[in-house]
UniProtKB/TrEMBL annotation:
It comes from Nonomuraea coxensis DSM 45129. This is Undecaprenyl-phosphate mannosyltransferase. Its EC number is 2.4.1.54. CDD domains: DPM_DPG-synthase_like. Keywords: Glycosyltransferase, Transferase.
Length: 242
């Protein structure tokens, strides 16, 4: 895919806090045809913003007003101007070169393109056996409660058409943001396509993710959405992008 092949503009949202060492690698993987890159800075104490602006002079910077990955993404989504919104991580774990597959899935008819480390062609260098087990259990519970056929619930590499933001109606602050997006996309009856993705290990620094604490937040999100909102439409399907 290149700019001649699509009239759809693409915004990439990169939430970051103290990721100055990782950004040169992350930005180097972004395709040239992307229209907009938005860095959502979580009040970094290092040179994250300065490094990002040097790497990409056309960068847009949003300074986060609250805390948490979920809030950072929501603020980035609200600032985006592209037809398609892509969310990636700033730690080097998500490969920007895979954006082509997500955008192609949307151009082929999907409303929401969902990254999966477990789909054929995907994988992870970072998932521990404990985290993998927890993710599979939460994925299975979601599929049971919502009639979905997800293979990977807790993964932060996703893309969607910007006009579906209202349907997603995102309103959480933490790492449970990916689960909330997946559940509400299904409940809204969006056509969801899973895209194989290979997760790499963080390059520098340490993650703020806590498997137990954030796992409980994900579980509460799954159960709360099941009891507090309308049921998932019967026609909701999850397809695997080719």
């Amino acid at each position: 895919m290149n700019k001649q092949h699509s009239a759809a503009s693409v915004s990439v949202i990169v939430p970051a806090m103290n990721e100055a060492e990782n950004l040169p690698h992350v930005f180097a993987t972004l395709p040239e045809w992307i229209d907009e890159v938005i860095l959502v800075d979580g009040n970094s104490t290092d040179d994250t913003v300065a490094v990002a602006r040097k790497l990409r002079p056309d960068l847009r910077v949003v300074v986060q007003t609250r805390r948490g990955k979920g809030n950072a993404l929501i603020e980035g989504f609200q600032a985006a101007t592209g037809d398609i919104i892509v969310m990636i991580d700033a730690d080097g774990s998500t490969d920007g070169r895979e954006i082509r597959g997500f955008v192609d899935a949307l151009l082929a008819g999907a409303d929401f393109a969902k990254g999966s480390r477990y789909a054929p062609g995907g994988g992870s260098d970072d998932l521990s056996p404990w985290r993998s087990l927890g993710n599979k259990a939460l994925t299975g519970l979601t599929n049971l409660l919502y009639g979905t056929r997800y293979t990977d619930l807790c993964y932060g590499y996703n893309a969607f058409w910007a006009h579906h933001l209202d349907a997603l109606n995102l309103d959480c602050d933490g790492f449970e943001i990916e689960t909330l997006m997946n559940v509400r996309a299904a409940k809204a009856g969006l056509l969801i396509s899973e895209v194989p993705s290979h997760e790499r290990s963080r390059i520098h620094g340490t993650s703020n993710l806590n498997a137990v604490r954030d796992g409980w937040r994900v579980l509460r999100t799954i159960l709360r959405e099941r009891t507090g909102r309308e049921d998932v439409p019967a026609h909701t399907q999850v397809a695997l992008a080719k």
